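Minutes, project check-in
Item: structure for the 516-residue chain
Input as provided by the requester:
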Amino acid sequence: MTDTQIFTLVALAAYAIVMILIGCFSYGKSKTLDGFLIGGRNIGAWATAFAYGTTYFSAVVFVGYAGQHGWNIGIGAIWIGVGNAILGCLLSWLLFANRTRKMTKKLNARTMPDYFEKRYNSKGMKILASVIIFVFLVPYSAAVYKGLGSLFSSVFPGVETWVWMLLIACLTAVYLVAGGYIATSYTDLVQGVIMIAGVILLVIAVLRHGSVDGISGLIENLSNFKSLPDDPNPVTGSQLTNIFGGSSFKFLCFNIMLTSFGTWGLPQMIGKFYAIKDTAAIKRGTIISTIFCTVIGCGAYLIGSTSRLVLGGKLPEGGIDAVIPTLLTEVLGNGTLGNILLAVIMILLLSASMSTLQSVVLTSASAVAVDLIPALRKKETKPENQMLLTRVLCLAFVICSFIFATRNIPIIVSLMSFSWGVVSGCFIGPYIWGLFSKKITKTGAFAGVLSGLITVGGATLVISLQSGFSAAAAKSPEMGVTAMAVSMIIVPLVSAFTKNKKAESERIEEIFEFCK
C-alpha cells in the first residue's frame, strides 16, 4: 500500500467517525417530522449558509464541470463560478430567503410539493411535483455516486468502483436516517470547512506547479499553448486565455444561466430557506454563503483552467472525467506533504458530494413519504407512521441510487443529463410568482409546471428524431434555460386569464398579510 493510500484511508476513517457521531447526536432532535425535515425551523446562519453552499457544489462540479470546461474553454470558465456566487447564491438569498421562510411558516409547508398544495390549494399539483422530484432527482444522486466512485478508484486502482460507492452509500444512510435535516446541517458545517480549506490548499499547490508558475505564469503559458498533433479537441492559446470564452461564449452563457438561475427552482436548495430561524440569521447567512460559493466556485474552475498545462496537453486515458483526478495525482502525488494534501482534497470532494447527495435523498424521500403517499391515501397517516416511513424511504432512496449508479441503466443515465434543467424549469415559475404575486392562480401554476416538462420533452423528441438522443443530451443546458424562461412567462400569462374565486382571493390575502 502506498503512502497516498494510507493517508487517504486514515483521513476517510476520521471523517466517517465524525459523520456517524453527528448522526447519533442529532437523533434525539429529529423525532418529529418538522425536526427531521426542516430542523424545527431553528437552524442558524452558519449551518444554513454552509448547507446551501455544500449542496450547490459536489464532486460533479469539480470532476465534471470544472475539468471539462477548464480543459475546453480555459480562463473564461471561471465566469461560471462567478455567476454561481452572484446569481445562484447572493441574488437567491436576497430575493427569496426571507420571503420563503415567512410564507412556508404561515402555510406550515415542509417541502416544495407541500408548498405548492397549500399556496395554490391543489392536491393534484402536489402529486405532480412529487413525481417530478422522484423521477429526476434520484438519477441525479446516482451521478454523484459515480463521480465519487471513479475518483477514489483513481487513488486505489486495485479496488472496484462499486466498493467505494457502497461505502459512501452506507455512510450517508447512517447519519441521514438517524438525524435527518439537523444531522445534515451539522455535517454540512464540517464539510464546508473541509471544502474551503481543501480548495485554498489545492489552488496554492496548482499555481506553484512548475508548468503553471503563478497567476501571471498561467496567463503567459496558456497564451503560448499549442495542442498536440493527436489532440481530439485542439485549441489555441488565444482561446484558452480569452476572458469571455472565445468561440465558446454562447455555450458559456447557457451554462452560467443553467447552473446559476437553476438553483432558484431546485427544491433541495430552496428547502434551506424553510429551516433558517430568523431574519437576522438570513442577513448573516447571505454574506457567509456568498463568500463560500465564491471561493469554491471560482477556485474549482481556476484549477480546471490549468489542466492543459499541468497534463502537458494530453487528455488522460479516462477521458474528460479523468482530467481533475489525474491533475490531483500529478500536483500532489509526491512526498509526504503532497500525500497529506491529496488525502485532504479527496475528503474535500467526498464532503462536497455527500452534502449534495444527502440533500437530494432527503428531498426525494420526503416527496414520496410526506407528499405523494398521503395525497393518494384516503385515510390520514399518523405522524409517527409518517416519520417512520420517511426514514425508511431515505434508506430506500440511498439503495436505489446506489443500484442505478452500479448498473448503468440507460434510461437512468439519460435522465441525469436533464435533471437540473427539468426540475428547475418546472418549479421556478410557480415557486417565485407564488411568493410575490397574489394574482397567480392554480391554473397558472399548473401551466408553469407543465410548460417546463413540455419544453424539455418536446425539444428532446424533435432533436432526437433529427440527430439522435446524444445530440439532445448535449443540448440539455439550452433546454433547461429555455424551460425556466417559459415557466416564468407562462405562469402570470395564464393567471391573467383565470382569475381566483372570491374565497380563494381572501385566503391568499391572509397569507400575504402575514408575509409583509
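Outcome recorded: The first helix runs from residue 3 to 27.
No further action items on this chain.
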